[in-house]
């Protein structure tokens, strides 16, 4: 298969089309713009719809409409724009609609900056919108993984009738790496629930998130949480490097995992027993994988491009049996390998 | 025995939750009759708003989607773009369409989105108990304008059809009323035209229907119809503000 | 082996393009690569730079903070990156635009008036490729054996057919640098 050199954002857009995405609705914002630009150029040629919406709010609701009609639909944005989408995401989750939402993160809060960041961890994992709901969150760490996870995101969205987020960032979106597009036979399941006209062959379908009777609303949320339980059992993904004998496990996801990987390699070269644990899904959090990676660990060091938003999940997943320390840069600054290595060395001095 | 009056097929055989004397029922029926007459129920998708007609998904027999507040035109856009062969209509109140959803409304219109919008204007937020709407008339008393809407404080009502008539993508912008039999006939013709425009891919069609809210106006059903005639129609004159023929002439030169 | 490169200049000088050519060439040689651009207001006339990593193993951080090779096409680029170059590193400076003094003795500095030379040969705006040509000549091993031939193939692949004239021009600029 042919290798091509592609930016993360463009690779994601191409992968979405290959995964059967037929409708994309977006609104310009840096650093995700290449996704829109690529789809604007290619979507119509390949029988799909690209539409630039008047706002992020409109874009996510167009996704709601297209997903209701039974087609694979996607929207993408960067941090401030994702906040605007939160209303629609809640309705989409509550209406049991499958779709893919991409966040190419930039620094926040507020207008923040436009450089890479991971400061939307809490937003993505805890509450992207009001009400009791969750969504699967994939965090790629390379351009190839961005592609692979895009296919996965559409499949899981359809399988569990849920919104799925791909949490990328400015670094992964902008960087180019050689990639290969897998040849897969896209299987889109039947959607007998879709609102696309009953053709006088069935009773009318209703897609709705309003339940005025508390007992019925409770039942519908419970039913959704039963699905989340299956997601929790079957969907967590993580990668471990050098963790078998690691005393210091560096936990990092996405772009910061790239830096952490280099730092762990450098630490190993110095004879320090360091390992890398990289969640590939943040929801569901890979609890079992983490505990396995930390079998020999004395300290866990979370390396993030934010103020330490994954630390809580690490502590919970480990049931607080290990100290979880934190090192991060934020505001759009990517931590350097030297900085992270310095942290590992400090911990090493302390625990030896 | 011959049947002289029946429920349209496009209306479900259920009791609605609307207050006695509210004209939502008439407007629902007109939409349903048009769907029946055009024989499009099987390919129609309706989009409900947030407001009194939030549960209209239980009343129409076609596929129905419930949209977030004000977003019905965006949801309708998504459906129509995904499945261009469907017939898509939204059914929205004044708060939904002309306050929180103004942006979605204007831009769907500007895109010439090939959808039909039934806009029910009763100058008040009904579902939440009678607050000021974007169409509340100066002087009108509501829960949040207890001394009457004062333009120097609360500004002026939005005249939706007049505004949308300026937008190039609009094929039909017409204001009608359901306060009398002749007006109801006229309203039905307008609604039929709005659906017909969509079937013939003429672009965005909106029919604004002046409607009542006896409960929140504090009037009897009869008095309410009288208010439509004496207060609403003078402020919101009935008529065709833009028509497809004129529009297509403009586009095609 | 890991080789980390920064190419930097004013927006429009082709720093990002030169990096992309290098990355593409490396890909054709089955070398692991990453290319990371600066982005944002730099694109509109300020300084623009890119990080390129070449390695025989999967690449960790794509952000180069301590380059083995620096190609600097203006003074702000020299000033910004010169102190971060690894000891023993190689620096290529377009001396027709960058005049900043370089006092470091532990690095090898090549100064060539790349833009001016390109201009003289009617290859205006290709100072970036002239510098790349020189870098390939001097850094052969560090660049995993990427040579003029690899880059010519790259030009043919990444320059769209409707701008085919640029393939030859870029090849000429490359040769110009390599022969200095």
Task: Give a brief rundown of this model.
The complex is a heterotrimer of chains A (352), B (253) and C (180). Chain B has helices spanning 24-38, 72-82, 94-100, 102-110, 151-154, 160-164, 181-199, 214-217, 221-235, 244-252; strands at residues 44-48, 63-66, 87-93, 116-121, 124-125, 131-132, 170-177, 204-210, 239-242. Chain B has 253 residues and is α/β, with parallel strands linked by helices.
What is the domain tally of chain B?
A: 1
The span between the termini of chain C is 27 Å
| Protein structure class of chain C | alpha/beta
The CATH architecture of chain C: 3-Layer(aba) Sandwich
Mean pLDDT of chain B: 95
Kindly describe this structure.
- The complex is a heterotrimer of chains A (352), B (253) and C (180).
- Chain A is 41% helix and 20% strand.
- Chain A is α/β, with parallel strands linked by helices and 352 residues long.
- Chain A starts with a strand and ends with a helix.
- Chain B has one domain (24-252): Rossmann fold (3-Layer(aba) Sandwich).
- Chain B contains 10 helices and 9 strands.
- Chain B has a 7-stranded mixed beta sheet, with helices on both faces. Chain B has a two-stranded antiparallel ribbon with strand order 5-6.
- In chain B, a hairpin with a 5-residue loop joins strand 5 and strand 6.
- With 180 residues, chain C is an alpha/beta fold.
- Chains A and B meet through strand 2, helix 3, helix 4 and strand 9 of A and strand 1, strand 2, helix 2 and helix 4 of B.
- Strand 9 of chain A pairs parallel with strand 2 (63-66) of chain B.
């Amino acid at each position: 298969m042919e290798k091509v050199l592609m930016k993360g954002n463009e690779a994601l857009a191409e992968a979405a089309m290959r995964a059967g995405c037929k409708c994309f609705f977006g609104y310009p914002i840096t650093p995700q713009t290449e996704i829109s630009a690529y789809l604007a150029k290619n979507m119509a040629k390949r029988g799909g719809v690209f539409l630039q919406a008047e706002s992020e709010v409109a874009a996510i609701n167009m996704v709601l409409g297209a997903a209701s009609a039974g087609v694979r639909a996607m929207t993408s944005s960067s941090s401030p724009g994702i906040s605007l989408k939160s209303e629609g995401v809640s309705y989409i989750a509550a209406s049991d609609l499958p779709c893919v939402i991409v966040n190419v993160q930039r620094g926040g809060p507020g207008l923040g900056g436009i450089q890479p960041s991971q400061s939307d961890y809490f937003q993505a994992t805890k509450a992207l919108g009001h009400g009791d709901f969750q969504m699967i969150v994939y965090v790629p760490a390379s351009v190839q993984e961005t592609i692979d996870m895009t296919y996965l995101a559409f499949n899981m969205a359809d399988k569990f009738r849920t919104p799925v987020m791909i949490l990328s960032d400015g670094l992964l979106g902008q960087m180019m790496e050689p990639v290969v597009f897998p040849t897969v036979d896209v299987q889109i399941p039947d959607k007998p629930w879709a609102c696309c006209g009953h053709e006088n062959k069935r009773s009318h379908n209703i897609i709705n998130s309003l339940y005025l009777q508390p007992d019925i609303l409770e039942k519908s949320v419970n039913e959704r949480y039963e699905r989340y339980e299956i997601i929790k059992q079957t969907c967590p993904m993580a990668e471990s490097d050098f963790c078998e004998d690691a005393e210091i496990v560096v936990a990092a996801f996405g772009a910061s995992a790239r830096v952490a990987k280099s730092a762990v390699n450098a630490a190993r070269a110095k004879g320090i027993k360091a390992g890398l644990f990289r969640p590939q899904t943040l929801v569901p959090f890979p609890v079992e994988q983490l505990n396995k990676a930390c079998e020999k660990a004395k300290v866990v060091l979370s390396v993030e491009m934010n103020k330490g938003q994954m630390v809580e999940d690490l502590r919970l997943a480990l049931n607080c049996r290990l100290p979880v320390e934190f090192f991060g840069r934020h505001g759009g600054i990517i931590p350097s390998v030297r900085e992270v290595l310095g942290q590992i060395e400090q911990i090493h001095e302390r625990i030896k | 025995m011959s049947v002289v009056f029946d429920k349209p097929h496009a209306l479900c055989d259920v009791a609605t939750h609307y207050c006695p004397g509210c004209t939502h029922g008439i407007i629902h029926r007109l939409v349903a009759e048009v769907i029946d007459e055009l024989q499009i129920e099987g390919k129609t998708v309706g989009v409900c708003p947030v407001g009194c007609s939030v549960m209209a998904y239980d009343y129409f027999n076609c596929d129905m989607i419930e949209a977030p507040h004000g977003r019905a035109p965006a949801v309708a856009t998504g459906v129509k773009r995904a499945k261009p062969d469907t017939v898509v209509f939204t059914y929205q109140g004044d708060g939904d369409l002309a306050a929180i959803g103004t942006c979605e409304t204007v831009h769907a219109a500007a895109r010439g989105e090939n959808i039909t919008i039934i806009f029910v204007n009763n100058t008040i937020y009904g579902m939440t108990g009678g607050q000021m709407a974007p169409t509340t008339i100066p002087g009108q008393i509501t829960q949040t304008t207890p001394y009457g809407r004062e333009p120097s404080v609360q500004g002026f009502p939005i005249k939706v059809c007049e505004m949308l008539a300026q937008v190039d993508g609009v094929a039909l912008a017409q204001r009608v009323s359901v306060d009398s039999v002749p007006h109801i006939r006229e309203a039905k013709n307008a609604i039929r035209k709005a659906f017909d425009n969509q079937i013939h891919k003429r672009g965005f069609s909106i029919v604004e229907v002046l409607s009542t809210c006896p409960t929140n106006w504090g009037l009897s059903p009869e008095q309410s119809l009288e208010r439509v005639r004496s207060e609403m129609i003078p402020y919101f004159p009935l008529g065709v503000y833009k028509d497809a023929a004129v529009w297509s002439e403009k586009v095609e030169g | 082996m890991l080789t980390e490169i920064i190419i930097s200049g004013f927006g429009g000088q082709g720093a990002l393009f030169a990096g992309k050519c290098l990355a593409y060439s490396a890909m054709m040689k089955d070398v692991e690569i990453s290319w990371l651009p600066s982005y944002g207001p730099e694109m509109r006339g300020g300084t623009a730079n890119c990080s390129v990593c070449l390695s025989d193993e999967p690449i960790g951080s794509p952000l180069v903070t301590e380059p083995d090779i620096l190609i600097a096409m203006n003074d702000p680029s020299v000033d910004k990156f010169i102190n971060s170059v690894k000891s023993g590193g190689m620096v290529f400076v377009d001396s027709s635009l960058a005049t900043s003094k370089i006092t470091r003795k532990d690095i090898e500095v090549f100064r060539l008036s790349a833009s001016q030379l390109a201009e003289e040969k009617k290859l205006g705006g290709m100072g970036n490729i002239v510098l790349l040509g020189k870098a390939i000549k001097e850094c052969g091993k560090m660049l995993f054996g990427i040579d003029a031939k690899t880059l010519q193939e790259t030009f043919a692949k990444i320059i769209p057919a409707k701008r085919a004239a640029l393939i030859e021009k870029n090849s000429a600029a490359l040769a110009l640098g390599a022969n200095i």
